[in-house]
Design goal:
The protein has one domain. The relative contact order is 0.16. It is 38% helix and 18% strand.
């Protein structure tokens, strides 16, 4: 069977549903990977579990499954979790965290450029209960708004490893000999749900307390209940509704 024209590469992602507190001993290494101080992740998990009956791991497991359901809807794509696909056999390579989403027709917008450029970026949607299209960041690599083409791998000689983390991808996209293009389309969304690294960092910036954590979840749900998706973002409506329902349940079960 021929490989799918698009490879979606899922970054580091544990089996959240099988984790227990023994995982906490490993979180300092994860903090270093994502550029956070030691104890950041462990402290957030412990506070979450002390606040809500729906555990942090259960929450992240739900969000990952929602992400995987979204990825399976991307037409012409195959999902890779673990080692990067050998040999650069796909035409386009996408990268994603385990709680982000792609528009189902993203491949159709990228494949026509696979032999013309080395990489592509597009507008990223930030979803935190409301929608913000980051159209002012042309060419910047967020977690899932960039792709590498087969031309970069086969002809120019770039390694996929250089693009795995989006910070490294930004540097690679600006390196000599790399030819990128930017599409003025919103083809993906980063989900800043209350259990995401960014949301936890922002909500707990002035102290890790139960009240600030609960307030963060409440604010997310309130924004989500008010938001109405337009024609360009209506592909997000169903999973966004599922997230809202999930965090309503979280709020109903406080410790």
């Amino acid at each position: 069977m021929d490989p799918a024209p698009v490879a979606i590469i899922l970054r580091q992602s544990p089996d959240w549903g099988r984790l227990d507190d023994t995982f906490l001993a490993q979180t300092d290494a994860f903090d270093r990977l994502i550029g956070r101080p030691p104890g950041f992740t462990r402290g957030n998990i412990e506070l979450w579990n002390a606040t809500f009956l729906v555990s942090f791991f259960e929450t992240r497991s739900f969000l990952k499954e929602l992400c995987l359901r979204n990825l399976r809807l991307v037409r012409g794509a195959e999902i890779y979790a673990g080692p990067l696909p050998a040999g650069g056999q796909a035409s386009v390579f996408l990268f994603v965290d385990d709680d982000d989403w792609f528009r189902p027709d993203v491949a159709g917008h990228l494949l026509p450029h696979a032999d013309e450029v080395d990489g592509l970026t597009w507008w990223s949607i930030r979803y935190d209960g409301g929608v913000a299209v980051r159209s002012d960041a042309d060419g910047f690599c967020f977690t899932n708004n960039y792709a590498v083409t087969r031309r970069a791998i086969r002809e120019v000689g770039f390694s996929l490893d250089r693009f795995f983390q989006h910070g490294h991808a930004n540097a690679a996209f600006q390196s000599p000999g790399f030819c990128p293009a930017h599409l003025k389309l919103a083809l993906s969304a980063t989900i800043k749900h209350p259990a995401s690294t960014v949301a936890l960092e922002q909500s707990l910036a002035h102290g890790m307390t139960r009240d600030t954590l609960v307030a963060s979840v409440e604010s997310f749900v309130e924004r989500a209940q008010r938001h109405r998706f337009d024609r360009d973002t209506d592909w997000m409506a169903k999973p966004a509704g599922e997230i809202t329902d999930f965090f309503r349940r979280v709020l109903r079960h406080l410790r």
